[in-house]
């Protein structure tokens, strides 16, 4: 009978039928007069048994891993005593090679293995992606993005696609990639926040999933030069609403992944101990966090006024206690979440260490620092995965704050400050680093594993 063309994922309903599947040879076991191919087509893995004449052709004897093939046969249920992906096996009666892959010294398995240098693996990322772990991470990434979108839409946020090419160099000048735009200076976006703010009066609450680009001198486990930024902006909310909303989106996104058998299996494969975080998340004001770090003996590297590390007599970086006004660095953040073992919102950071547009809390009598309605969400193993704040609502106040920004031409920001001129409102928003969120759920050592073709300082290929 005519074989039915199918993808591996859809085979379950075709047991006992004649089908044909195309894919790549993922694994290959040859015996005297038979052979087993584990086929991969991107939707799953299928065990295929070849015996008799079909296993003894020249093509069969010279078949190599990663060749593309088409296999025809009847799909058989395998007995419980044998294990096969999906619980079935294709009994092949006809097959052909579509594209052979090199064997011998050029075989993939010899080229790429755990002994390889990191830079070799990065150069060969297009082939590394064929591996079981790398492809599982990317499948989970797609599901995580879809799940987050479903949650955001269900909470009445509308998706928009802001531009990546821009000229207003707001947040932190030196951290933008600059380019020549028909003879004019332009930049790649670091955040779509300001565009989202301008959408509130026309579209209501909005979100976007957009690449953000950052000149980061940091070679760390959690910094990329280009990352996927999920950002949202909400009108007529309080700071408390904002934190609750972030928590809801993060938790619903995870719950949906765990409730779906296919995505739950990916999480189990990558991160066997992962469980949904319990709610509500801890909330800790920045000032309490400084005390907490000191009470737990977590110090920071001492630095001079230019930010250079201060060395002790033995040449080691000197460590000192945290003081109010200090940034909580990556190492301290990670130790904190490792001890707490659960997500935590750090909030109400001093204005001096946060972005100019953040809403300030009324100054407390005698307090040395003006605080802001800002929050960072930290999770175990990664640290900060999301940052957000309420925004200044007054045009005068915002203009004054913009004036303090180095290298910013305030008049060029009219489109953003006009949001306050034409009917201002209490509003706030946040940005989630998608690779960091995924690194947490998939238990990856670095965000580089969570990006298709990761970029970091010095790496912009393939
Ligand atoms: O904390 P950030 O810089 O906040 C903003 O850009 C706000 N304008 C967002 C907003 O309110 N709409 O960045 C937000 C998140 C961080 O918490 C982090 O998860 C991620 O973006 N992130 C990075 N991820 C990977 N590589 C980098 N270099 C990142 N920089 C920030
Ligand atoms: Mg941040």
Automatic annotation (TrEMBL):
GO terms for molecular function: asparagine-tRNA ligase activity; ATP binding; nucleic acid binding. It comes from the Eukaryota. It is found in: Cytoplasm. Signal peptide: none annotated. It catalyses: tRNA(Asn) + L-asparagine + ATP = L-asparaginyl-tRNA(Asn) + AMP + diphosphate + H(+). Residues 213-454 form the Aminoacyl-transfer RNA synthetases class-II family profile domain. One of its GO terms (biological process) is asparaginyl-tRNA aminoacylation. Its EC number is 6.1.1.22. GO terms for cellular component: cytoplasm. Its main location: cytoplasm. Keywords: Aminoacyl-tRNA synthetase, ATP-binding, Cytoplasm, Ligase, Nucleotide-binding, Protein biosynthesis. Belongs to the class-II aminoacyl-tRNA synthetase family. This is asparagine--tRNA ligase. The chain holds residues 104 to 565 of 565 of the full protein.
